[in-house]
């Protein structure tokens, strides 16, 4: 049987100024600091039972160490290790505890140069007593949370000069499912929107039209509840003097968005509300063509193409 | 390999007055009429790609013909047929087209008296041209939709005098996953909240404390976007002279709710916003005990226990 | 010319436990502490430019010292003093600074036993630098505010055994305008909803059907933005272990509500969203009769009649 | 005593294609058609008790016939007529019924070329029986209303090459109150935001930086409930193939906005949520200077300067 992924787990980001980036992701955005170890800070969204969905590590420059994915079961981890080695890809085993919070893992670089990590088990530590919700199915109380704190990680958008190669490899080798895709007028692919677990877009693979750029992370999306929350988040950012990269709604996924970048690292977060979740076992990928709409965005605009290279 | 379910598909309801019930479910609630055939009307929510999630059939009295579930693949349908017959349960094969919109199916009665239907394939007809959204990933345009129209079916709540027997059978034989459960002070089980596909509560099995009652359907839940929509739906019902059974938020599932009953049949719909969806492959069932909170509802109340028997 | 009121300004509340009441009104509700002086704490809502809209003073028992109203101009203050004395009502002049934040004032007791304060000028101090919004038309930044903090005082609801006498006196002597009223089936008045400034309900005068009770304050309402905020406030209260007195929507005023009481004093706050504001110079009072609707509430219920006597 | 205005009442717009403009303002936006008479259609928002807040008349080109204002009482109408004639302005008396729904009126042209109408009384006809709300304080039921229908007229934005002359004249002669204003870096005035009744911005007077343009109307704003409604309105417009001119939040007034133009006439409507309303008798105008913020908008952008001349 083919090994399978369950879901997107986390992003491991590098920043030239850890404390400044924390003041963005923890203090301004509202992710919870879970642990610090060896120069890395672990962050978790308020509705996540899992140990973390983001790590920040100080480095010479902003970068992406890896994107982490969880397998459906332990056997799949070994299965993926075997499968990747069969394809001639170097697989590095990481001991449990090397990165806090999850079990042993494999790391590898995709043929297009994106570093991924796969693991099967992640801890689900209780929040500190004073932050614990009285609702047993909610980790953090709303009391004491940042009012704009997003709920949980939703997807990553990865840019590549060989996006088609990348998305096909994700499908063929790693078993990603295509949820939607967008073709340009000349038939070339602009973007492919894939799911690891099968229920929603977890990886958007975008063609880097400027070609020569290295593999990059355009943004990491976290889910909020409503469009009102996007305005609240934009407002809170403005009060802190942090501009945003636009508010609106994507046609693809139908997710409403607010984009904001960490001033220290340039890493961009998308606050996302209402993106499609599907439970359909026979989902047919949605095929968009340039010209279906006047714009790739249904409402509003994205005002920056900046992205952080691996 | 064990056969597997993918998700809750639809409810097949009986009403003593079809036109009156349509004026509730279609005109007041905003489900779309898809087809009529042989005394049955097929209804579909505005965000559903699938043929229908509810049928209404005129009968002597309000009742429940069956609750329909979709398998993950065709093999699972045969697998379930074999498995059920092995357990001594009568399985009736239903030809494609007997109920419009889906392929061949099996019907059977659970040991506790609930009638279920399993099938694998369902059609995804396009909406009428004038109702089609310009967004390719949304079936119906918001233009012309009822402003309170819910998005898609979410779960059913089934009552039974032998709820524990029922929920254990759903787990053991049909592979349902427990998402949450609630035990009374004396340790007896009040409710078990299960998922067919593994991502969210799709069947709530409630102990019928009045014991002698027949198996019953308490409500069918449809998802809306926000708590504001619950107020909008309550308002629209009031304008039509239809009282509601309460607005608030469940502790279990965290779903915000509005309950309203079809005046003609007594069938109850829950407008539901924000219930937990989880993509965690290692979800641990949430164990509630009486006393964890003062009430089973986090906010507000449900004001009626009426339910419709099978 | 007749003296005129401009608006409801503040409530001066007494509590048997000042620190506990502060932990409710300031920490849980999110009013800002402006000043402390001589056993009184001054509180202000986040969207108020004015010095305060509530004071809390420790006393033997919960009570209401006075309800404060602002006149349209300085001459009206003298005008009201003359007018009241003409009617044989004792008027006490209060020096500027006796109560912090406003100019000289008069205090008096209405014929039905409610203590009122009138003044003309109130200070508009800047918030502390670290709480100041970057928007010049908003006093407090959303950063650092309690996420459920209401925006500004909206109205008071006063109960009286002689409600009709009271509301007529407010109209005839003080120039209050009737926005809406509600008559029982037998023609007797249940409630009159009046405005001081003419744009919205600022004083709801309710017939105390248990007759023998002293004049009382049922609640002080503060405005929030949306129905979502009512759920957010209910949630935050539940997380703190504070039950609420119901969520829903009034028919009168159309305001959506959440009621919560300070556990220490019993003083009740209404979080209110969307109550009617009118700019119509020819507003005709809305006349409700029992039987117009099944209930006095359009949606939901109020679950307690507790009120705090003067 | 000086005559006084109570509020903005309506805009009288001209369009080259009446039916097309109706399909925008009535069918797409959701204003209710009240009456037709002599080539003019009268429109009313769903929360307005008054006869109309907009008229549409077919003409050779898009234009503005007048902006209508209601006086506080009948005497003020005569007072304004006298006052204007004293200033050498031609005043034309309009008989009751010339424009349906309101009493006799005066019309005149401001020194900057904007045509205004003043009147004192407006009818408050009941909605058609089938559209009447069961709430006595709400004219139209939500059942049957366009789901994005705005509640009531809020303000007009007028552009002028001599904006300073215009806003000073509005203050000095007509008694408008300044709520906010915005000065450029060189000290020149970009915009003044005035109130007729004293509670909120009703006329925004903007300096037409291209100088040579005739007096113009940039937009008419109608109020909706929440930011979610702005997204809903943008969505409904997109489904009809009508692009919008941006979504976001103004710094001035704090109103959240969506701008959309009638394709036939170019007349722009602003859906506005949450603009400041103040009941403060001592409101100090908010003084903005270029440089207070990076942009005149707090969130988002306005994407077009098109406006319709008188």
TrEMBL record, chains A, B, C, D:
Region: Disordered, residue numbers: 122-147
Entry keywords, A to Z: Aromatic hydrocarbons catabolism, Dioxygenase, Metal-binding, Oxidoreductase, Repeat
UniProt domain VOC: residue ranges: 7-121, 152-274
InterPro entries, sorted: Glyas_Bleomycin-R_OHBP_Dase, Glyas_Fos-R_dOase_dom, GlyoxalaseI/FosfomycinResist, VOC_core, XylE-like_N
Keyword rRNA processing: no
Highest taxon of source: Archaea
Gene3D superfamilies: 2,3-Dihydroxybiphenyl 1,2-Dioxygenase, domain 1
Molecular function, one GO term: metal ion binding
Membership in a protein family: Belongs to the extradiol ring-cleavage dioxygenase family.
Pfam families in the cross-refs: Diox-like_N (PF22247), Glyoxalase (PF00903)
Protein name listed in UniProt: VOC family protein
PANTHER family, sorted: GLYOXALASE FAMILY PROTEIN
Subunit structure: Homotetramer.
Positions with biased composition (Basic and acidic residues): 122-132
Entry keyword annotation includes Secreted: no
Provenance organism: Halobium palmae
Stretch forming the signal peptide: none
Regions annotated as coiled coil: none
């Amino acid at each position: 049987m083919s090994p399978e992924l369950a879901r997107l787990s986390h992003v491991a980001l590098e920043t030239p100024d850890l404390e400044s980036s924390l003041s963005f992701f923890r203090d301004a955005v509202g992710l919870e600091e879970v642990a610090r170890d060896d120069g890395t800070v672990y962050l978790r969204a308020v509705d996540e039972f899992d140990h973390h969905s983001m790590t920040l590590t100080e480095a010479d420059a902003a970068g992406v160490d890896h994107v982490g994915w969880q397998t459906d079961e332990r056997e799949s981890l070994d299965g993926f290790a075997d499968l990747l080695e069969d394809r001639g890809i170097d697989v590095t085993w990481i001991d449990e505890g090397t990165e806090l919070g999850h079990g042993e893992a494999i790391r590898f670089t995709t043929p297009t140069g994106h570093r991924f990590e796969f693991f099967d088990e992640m801890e689900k530590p209780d929040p500190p007593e004073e932050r614990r919700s009285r609702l047993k199915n909610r980790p953090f109380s709303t009391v004491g949370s940042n009012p704009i704190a997003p709920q949980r990680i939703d997807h990553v958008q990865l840019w590549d000069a060989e996006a088609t190669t990348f998305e096909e490899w994700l499908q063929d080798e790693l078993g990603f499912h295509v949820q939607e895709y967008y073709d340009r007028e000349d038939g070339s692919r602009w973007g492919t929107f894939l799911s690891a677990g099968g229920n929603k877009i977890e990886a958007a693979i975008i063609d880097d039209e400027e070609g020569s750029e290295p593999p990059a992370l355009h943004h990491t999306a976290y889910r909020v509840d409503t469009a009102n929350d996007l305005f609240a988040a934009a407002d809170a950012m403005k009060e802190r003097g942090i501009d945003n990269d636009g508010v609106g709604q994507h046609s693809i996924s139908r997710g409403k968005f607010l984009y904001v970048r960490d001033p220290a690292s340039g890493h961009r977060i998308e606050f996302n509300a209402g993106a499609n979740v599907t439970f359909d076992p026979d989902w047919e990928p949605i095929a968009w063509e340039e010209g279906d709409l006047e714009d790739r965005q249904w409402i509003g605009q994205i005002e920056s193409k900046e992205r952080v290279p691996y």
